[in-house]
From TrEMBL:
It is found in: Cell outer membrane. It holds the Pfam family CarbopepD_reg_2. It comes from the Bacteria. Residues 278-354 form the TonB-dependent receptor plug domain. Keywords: Cell outer membrane, Membrane, Receptor, Signal, Transmembrane, Transmembrane beta strand, Transport. This is TonB-dependent receptor. Residues 1-19 form the signal peptide. Belongs to the TonB-dependent receptor family. Coiled coil: none annotated. It is a multi-pass membrane protein.
Length: 921
């Protein structure tokens, strides 16, 4: 029946089309008018009537004159360069159609021909029209149909090129790494860093699938008639987490090959109650399994039983040596400037190196290149501001962020006399410039600076600062080959100004500087095989210590330790391969080398004797850029994933890493005044191995995520200290440190609820971390050379983060933490000498401080959701440590007036309320 109706319709059209309309010639002049006005002029000055829609045409003006030309000639000229066709109907009517063509006759063999057969055509061959209603597979009614180009009766090619840009509907930002594939999952293209794509499609109808992390999945029918441009806009995924910090594509935790990764979004961390209402993605990271800190007020992180110096913190690709303000209480980065934080704690990608335990990859968000906007907050002790503005609209933008603390008023208002002259302040600033040069090139530059200035006693002032710059050029060679070239420089310095009004006032300083160059390449061979490869080099320059008099009255003599320099280089290659639909592997190899460079003095020590001042055998002088010692070796990265079902997978990973820099500290936790030491003739690099295995499951249409992952790590040449070690201003610092073995193991459990009024996660980690410092010499042996618990060994670690949304504007948040008390060394006896009593201490870390637990609550008030308003406000009312738990930070013992006394220090021993106001404009 359908074909009969088509036959009747085409018979009528064919009869009308054969009328002699084209024989009528007309003369007409168009004087700087639009196409729509030209058609109206033809309608009014001739016998022809043209039917069309004005929306099909732009406002371009026409200046033409025609003398005794038939209507077909005139229309061909007027419609050139548009997607509009025309059809001559009856003696004096013309029908215009956009994109497609009205045919006057049925194609040859229309009846009885197998429509599933694919017809090959040659250039300029007459082809039959495409009848979309005759497809075997019916396109869903909800699927958008888009026509590209202008259909003609002939076509010169079998395939056409389609290109364009894909952007985020909410933010207007480009969407990188979006895959465009066919119905049978054959990959066609992946968008570049700037959201550009270019694909080759067969003529006619194509059903394409669009997929990207955090973006709503979509399918579209693209009907291609010619080469063309098509820009698309997609909304963010409705599956994104509402009030949960860690988010991403709902299938990523199951499908990704790399295990032990976490993603944290700064925007969604705003509802988690933290100390003094300050938003902090790094603090949120410690609420996830396998990541912890030594305690409140402790700088650095411990990941899967590793030391704090075994974590690489990157800020837009540059190394950030101290990512925290005020002894770890606040993050050193403006939270409004952060786009995303990715933490790799298991199978670290081959492109990252230089640390044994983890990588914290912090990325700033790009400024808005279409309009001016910003975000600000005001809390009890800090204020934050970020502004974004376009420089060249649609192409480049600038983001500026600033933050400062004004805590001095709190210290001055306290009744405690010893704190009346104390001060505690910090500030940081960031500038980010992004420029889209063209569809193949993008440049991003970041500059950052932070400074802390505090004094809790009346005689010592601590000053430390971070500085870094990063310049990245992203280039797309073609649809499959992308590159990024980066230059970065970062430095960290600290000073201690000691001033008591006596003759021993001094200024002690330290500085480390790092310059890096990297070329990173991504090659997409197919949907099943991707490669990442590149090279990098780092130049270290360390000023290990300068001591100088603080004023003219000081008797301190100037002293400066020799500078340290080193060159680290690496090349890497990794491949992610989907062997089958269920089995995928990620294999990587990284080869790194390290050269300690002169000009410097090194000491050789006698063999068969402990390293001390008395066993120095020789002093060696190395000239400028002379190689002191070379280290290096292969680093292996391997991971595998097996899909048991689409919502259940098994993952395994192995890492072998080398670390060439170390932190020198003799504190139970690292502090901002600990120093970084380069490997040299006497201090060897650390090496580590990690094995991991996990099971990952999603439930209830991915509303719930459950994971259980175990790990086992070993390391050697881990740096620690001798009892009573003097590390600052020591030119023979190798005589004060020890290098030993480390091991850790554990199991991590996480359950996360992604949707609904109540969402959040519950994480639990059981882990152990041990260190062994053994030697044939007693002074280089700790705890008789046996394994002992490390300073951050906490077997049980439980974290719960929850948010309950009463309405779209009001929500209640909670954050609960429980941890086993960390190890300490305590007195187990005493003795008397010269009428004074002294303590005899236990083996190192053989006792523990009391367990730690804390509950934080917060109430969040969103502003109204009216569209036409100046900005959007957000209030957070929170109480940190609601239970008033006096959690000990450390326990220490001193001898005073001949008596041994024990002391306990705490950071926050009472509930700490705060109110923070946030405003977006």
């Amino acid at each position: 029946m359908r074909k009969c109706l088509v036959l009747i319709l085409f018979a009528l059209v064919s009869k009308a089309a054969h009328s002699q309309v084209g024989d009528k010639e007309i003369s007409i002049t168009f004087d700087n008018i639009s196409r729509a006005e030209a058609f109206e002029q033809i309608n009014s000055s001739s016998d022809f009537k043209i039917f069309y829609l004005k929306d099909w045409f732009t406002d371009s003006l026409i200046q033409k004159s025609f003398v005794r030309k038939d209507i077909g000639f005139i229309l061909d000229d007027l419609l050139e360069g548009t997607t509009v066709n025309y059809f001559l109907y009856l003696p004096d009517k013309v029908i215009l159609t956009n994109n497609n063509t009205i045919y006057g006759k049925l194609p040859e063999g229309f009846f009885g021909k197998d429509t599933t057969e694919v017809e090959k055509v040659t250039a300029s061959q007459k082809v039959a029209p495409i009848f979309y209603g005759n497809q075997d597979k019916v396109v869903a009614k909800s699927m958008e149909t888009i026509r590209v180009g202008r259909e003609t009766g002939t076509r010169s090619k079998d395939t056409y090129i389609l290109s364009g840009n894909i952007t985020n509907f909410e933010s207007g930002d480009p969407i990188p790494d979006m895959t465009i594939s066919t119905e049978n999952n054959q990959l066609l293209a992946v968008t570049s860093f700037e959201g550009f794509y270019r694909i080759e499609l067969p003529a006619g109808s194509n059903i394409l699938k669009f997929r990207a992390l955090g973006i709503e999945r979509s399918e579209k029918e693209i009907i291609v008639f010619n080469d063309g441009t098509l820009d698309l806009v997609f909304e963010e995924s409705v599956e994104q987490l509402d009030e949960v910090v860690v988010q991403g594509d709902i299938y990523k935790n199951i499908e990704e090959t790399v295990s032990g990764t976490e993603e944290i979004d700064s925007e969604e961390s705003k509802t988690i109650p933290l100390v003094l209402g300050e938003r902090d993605v790094l603090k949120v990271a410690t609420a996830l399994p396998g990541i912890s800190s030594a305690g409140e007020g402790a700088t650095g992180f411990n990941v899967r039983g590793g030391k704090a110096d075994q974590n690489l913190v990157l800020f837009d690709g540059a190394t950030l040596y101290n990512p925290q303000h005020f002894f770890g209480i606040f993050s050193a980065i403006n939270p409004f400037s952060i786009g995303q934080l990715e933490v790799y704690k298991g199978n670290i990608p081959a492109k990252f190196g230089g640390r044994l335990s983890s990588v914290f990859d912090i990325k700033t968000k790009d400024g808005d290149n279409t309009e001016f906007k910003g975000e600000a907050s005001l809390g009890p002790v800090t204020g934050n501001l970020v502004m974004e503005t376009p420089i060249v609209k649609g192409k480049s933008s600038l983001m500026f962020g600033a933050r400062g603390a004004y805590a001095n008023w709190i210290l001055r208002s306290m009744k405690e006399q010893s704190l009346s002259k104390s001060r505690a302040s910090f500030y940081d600033g960031i500038i980010n410039y992004t420029h889209q040069v063209n569809e193949n090139n993008r440049v991003k530059a970041t500059a950052y600076y932070s400074k802390d200035n505090f004094s809790i006693s009346s005689d010592s002032l601590y000053i430390y600062d971070n500085r870094l710059v990063s310049l990245r050029w992203q280039h797309r060679f073609n649809d499959k080959h992308l590159s990024e070239v980066q230059l970065a420089n970062s430095s960290y310095t600290f000073n201690i100004e000691y001033e008591r009004g006596a003759n021993n006032d001094f200024d002690l300083g330290y500085k480390i500087n790092e310059t890096e160059a990297r070329i990173n390449m991504d090659y997409l061979h197919s949907t099943d095989l991707r490669f990442n490869y590149g090279v990098e080099g780092k130049l270290y320059a360390v000023e290990p210590g300068t001591l100088e008099p603080l004023n003219d009255g000081s008797s301190i003599e100037y002293n400066s330790l020799e500078k340290e320099r080193a060159l680290e280089a690496a090349a890497y290659l990794s491949a992610n391969y989907n062997i089958t639909k269920k089995l995928a592997v990620d294999l990587g190899m990284r080869y790194s080398t390290f050269m300690a460079l002169g000009e410097q003095t090194q000491y050789e020590y006698e063999e068969g004797a402990p390293k001390n001042q008395g066993s120095v055998r020789d002093t060696i002088q190395y000239g400028n850029n002379e190689v002191i010692e070379t280290y290096g070796g292969p680093e292996i990265r391997a991971g595998a994933r097996y899909l048991i079902t689409p919502s259940l997978s098994l993952k395994a990973g192995y890492n072998r890493s080398i670390q060439y820099v170390h932190i020198l500290t003799n504190n139970t936790t690292i502090s901002p005044i600990d120093t970084w030491k380069l490997s040299d003739l006497n201090i060897e690099p650390q090496k580590g191995h990690q094995y991991s295995f996990g099971i990952f499951k999603n439930l209830d249409a991915d509303a719930y995520e459950i994971s259980l992952e175990g790990f086992y790590k070993t390391s050697n040449k881990v740096l620690d200290f001798k009892t009573g070690a003097q590390l600052l201003m020591n030119e023979n610092v190798e005589t004060e440190v020890l290098q030993g073995e480390g091991k850790s193991y554990g199991v991590e459990f996480l359950i996360r609820k992604n949707r609904g009024k109540l969402n959040g996660w519950l994480g639990y980690t059981y882990s152990r971390s041990f260190l062994k410092l053994d030697s044939e010499f007693e002074e280089e042996r700790v705890n008789n050379g046996d394994f002992f618990a490390s300073n951050f060994d906490k077997p049980h670690d439980l974290s719960m983060v929850a948010n309950y949304k009463f309405t779209r504007r009001f929500s209640l948040s909670a954050n609960f933490v429980y941890q086993t008390g960390r190890p300490v060394t305590v007195p187990v006896g005493n003795f008397t000498f010269n009428d004074a009593e002294y303590a005899v201490y236990s083996d190192r870390n053989s006792y523990r401080i009391p367990d730690f637990y804390r509950l934080d609550l917060g109430f969040n008030i969103e502003g109204n959701h009216k569209l036409n308003k100046v900005g959007h406000s957000f209030w957070t009312i929170s109480v940190y440590n609601v239970l008033g738990r006096n959690n000990p930070y450390s326990v220490f013992y001193t001898t005073e007036n001949g008596d041994v006394k024990a002391y306990k220090s705490s950071i926050f021993s009472i509930p700490v309320p705060s109110i923070t106001y946030n405003f977006k404009f």
